[in-house]
Design brief:
Blueprint lengths: L1 E7 L8 H11 L6 E7 L2 E7 L3 H7 L4
Antiparallel strand pairs: 1-3, 2-3
Length: 63
Amino acid sequence: MCGIAGALDRSGAPIPIALLRRLSDVIAHREPDGEDRYSDGAVELANLRLLDGLVALAAEDPA
């Protein structure tokens, strides 16, 4: 299970990183096991991963 947050500025202006941090903090109470961010100017996305059991742990093993 994951939590996803994002923002888009239609004028093309960059999204302040502080805004994305506030958006991801809203779902951080779920105690994520990992976090990724994507930034492309006017688009910012955050993904918070929530592991669920041993199957999810094995999925993160690169072996």
